[in-house]
Amino acid sequence: IFDPQERVTTSSSWQSHWNHLFSSWTGKGLGEVDAQEPGEVSDWIDEILAHWSMISGNPAKRISRHLGGVRG
Question: Would you say the pTM of this structure is higher than 0.85?
Fold first, then answer.
Protein backbone atom coordinates (compact mmCIF):
# COMPACT_ATOMS: atom_id res chain seq x y z
CA ILE A 1 0.00 0.00 0.00
CA PHE A 2 1.46 3.32 -1.10
CA ASP A 3 1.86 6.01 1.55
CA PRO A 4 2.93 9.39 0.09
CA GLN A 5 4.44 10.31 3.46
CA GLU A 6 6.68 7.21 3.55
CA ARG A 7 10.34 7.94 4.16
CA VAL A 8 12.28 6.70 1.12
CA THR A 9 14.82 3.96 1.77
CA THR A 10 16.33 1.22 -0.37
CA SER A 11 13.45 -1.04 0.61
CA SER A 12 10.70 1.51 -0.16
CA SER A 13 8.01 0.83 -2.75
CA TRP A 14 8.56 1.94 -6.33
CA GLN A 15 5.70 4.41 -5.89
CA SER A 16 7.56 6.07 -3.04
CA HIS A 17 10.70 6.39 -5.13
CA TRP A 18 8.78 8.02 -8.00
CA ASN A 19 6.93 10.28 -5.57
CA HIS A 20 10.23 11.37 -4.01
CA LEU A 21 11.73 12.09 -7.44
CA PHE A 22 8.72 14.09 -8.61
CA SER A 23 8.65 15.95 -5.31
CA SER A 24 12.27 16.96 -5.79
CA TRP A 25 11.41 18.23 -9.30
CA THR A 26 8.23 20.15 -8.44
CA GLY A 27 8.51 20.92 -4.73
CA LYS A 28 5.45 18.85 -3.90
CA GLY A 29 4.65 15.18 -3.73
CA LEU A 30 1.41 13.33 -4.28
CA GLY A 31 0.43 13.84 -0.65
CA GLU A 32 0.43 17.60 -1.28
CA VAL A 33 -1.71 17.44 -4.43
CA ASP A 34 -5.50 17.13 -4.15
CA ALA A 35 -6.05 13.97 -6.20
CA GLN A 36 -9.78 14.78 -6.37
CA GLU A 37 -9.07 18.07 -8.17
CA PRO A 38 -8.33 17.34 -11.86
CA GLY A 39 -6.83 20.78 -12.51
CA GLU A 40 -4.37 20.48 -9.65
CA VAL A 41 -3.31 17.00 -10.75
CA SER A 42 -2.94 18.20 -14.35
CA ASP A 43 -0.81 21.18 -13.27
CA TRP A 44 1.43 18.87 -11.20
CA ILE A 45 1.86 16.52 -14.16
CA ASP A 46 2.65 19.49 -16.42
CA GLU A 47 5.38 20.58 -13.98
CA ILE A 48 6.85 17.07 -13.95
CA LEU A 49 6.88 16.85 -17.74
CA ALA A 50 8.32 20.35 -18.11
CA HIS A 51 11.16 19.51 -15.74
CA TRP A 52 11.85 16.18 -17.44
CA SER A 53 11.88 17.89 -20.84
CA MET A 54 14.26 20.53 -19.55
CA ILE A 55 16.78 17.98 -18.23
CA SER A 56 16.37 15.70 -21.25
CA GLY A 57 16.79 18.32 -23.93
CA ASN A 58 14.24 18.06 -26.70
CA PRO A 59 12.84 14.50 -26.50
CA ALA A 60 10.83 14.85 -29.73
CA LYS A 61 13.96 15.85 -31.64
CA ARG A 62 15.94 12.97 -30.09
CA ILE A 63 13.26 10.45 -31.07
CA SER A 64 13.13 11.87 -34.57
CA ARG A 65 16.92 11.55 -34.88
CA HIS A 66 16.85 7.96 -33.69
CA LEU A 67 14.22 7.18 -36.30
CA GLY A 68 16.37 8.75 -39.03
CA GLY A 69 14.52 12.09 -39.15
CA VAL A 70 15.67 15.66 -38.70
CA ARG A 71 19.23 16.19 -37.49
CA GLY A 72 20.53 19.04 -35.41
Answer: no
